[in-house]
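Translate structure to sequence.
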């Protein structure tokens, strides 16, 4: 518990003491909220993933990419190397 912090001092000025709970009826939490520092660039609620080779997040990136690639293959599969023929455009002379 950091007793030199801004929040601790502010609560004491408002009448709170360490053995009391928070709130009007002093029935709220007594212990402080624990924080956990996130990795830079990691979204809220995200957890850092390290694979067996020590790569951060690489496994999930590759698996996400592969699933998108499979979806694209299913959606845009042409059934071979057939190309659609275009209709010739007519040129207009003035």
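Result:
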């Amino acid at each position: 518990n950091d007793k030199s912090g801004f929040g601790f001092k502010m609560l004491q000025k408002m009448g709170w003491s360490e053995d009391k709970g928070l709130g009007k009826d002093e029935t709220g939490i007594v212990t402080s909220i624990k924080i956990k520092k996130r990795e830079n660039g990691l979204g809220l609620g995200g957890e850092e993933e390290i694979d067996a080779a020590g790569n951060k997040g690489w496994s999930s990136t590759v698996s996400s990419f592969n699933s998108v690639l499979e979806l694209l293959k299913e959606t845009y599969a042409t059934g071979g190397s057939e190309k659609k023929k275009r209709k010739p455009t007519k040129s207009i002379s003035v």
